[in-house]
Amino acid sequence: MNPKILLPKTKHFLLWLLSALVLIGMTMFVGFKAVNLYQVQTRILEQVTEMENRAAKRPVIKISKTQQDEQKQWELLEKEKQYPWKHLFAAIETSTDKQIELLELLPDKASRLVILRGEATNTASLVAFLEKLENNSNLRTVHLSHQEKVTRERLETVGFEIKITLR
Questions:
Q1: What phi, psi does 86 have (nearest 5°)?
Q2: Where are the membrane-spanning stretches (predicted)?
Q3: Which of 55, 83, 88, 132 has the most C-beta neighbours closer than 10 Å?
Q4: How far is CA 127 from the centre of its chain?
Q5: Cβ(133)–Cβ(140) below 8 Å
Q6: Which residues lie below 8 Å from residue 39, measured CB to CB, with a gap of 6+?
Q7: What end-to-end distance do the CA atoms of the chain give, in Å?
């Protein structure tokens, strides 16, 4: 029989076990902190690159003079297309009769103002024309701005100018 087996365990064993456990705990703590620090660092780097990308100046594409002119022409065409021509002509067509002769139509696209110039056979037909235009829901305002008697050879008519504001 071996006499050392029966001897009580020494105090050094517990000290070694405790120091090993502390060392393992500290290693795990340092490892978790390193992983956490790495994750924070990658997140910060991603944010920095994203901010740099946002702050980077976009390259300015230089457009030639002909392309600029073409773009302006397309914009003018688009504005022309959006102008309420259909409503204007529908209002005029429903309001006119054989006693009214329209000679000139001058639209101002910016202010949506239209000037109509023409002649009527008499004042009563002109007043009826104005009333029909005023009753149209597509026109905001209608007013007679000028009226005069026009004589050509033996024919007497009433020349007029009407200003119409479109909705």
A1: -60, -45
A2: 12-32
A3: 88
A4: 43
A5: no
A6: none
A7: 117
pLDDT tens figures, 76-101: 888 888 888 888 899 999 988 899 99
Q: What is the pTM of this model?
A: 0.55
CB of 107 within 8 A of CB of 89?
A: no
Where is average pLDDT lowest: 17-26, 54-63, 117-126?
Answer: 54-63
> Residue 7's pLDDT band (boundaries 50, 70, 90)?
low
> 3-state DSSP helix/strand/coil percent for the chain, to nearest 5?
50, 25, 25
Residue matched to tokens 């639209």? 107
Distance CA 82, CA 79 (A): 5
pLDDT tens per residue, range 115-149: 999 999 999 999 999 999 999 888 999 999 999 99
Residue ranges of domains in the chain, CATH in brackets? 99-166 (3.30.30)
Would residue 117 be called left, alpha or beta, if left means φ above 0 and alpha means ψ between -120 and 50 degrees?
beta
Exposed, middle or buried by CB within 10 Å (0-12, 13-18, 19+), for 128? middle
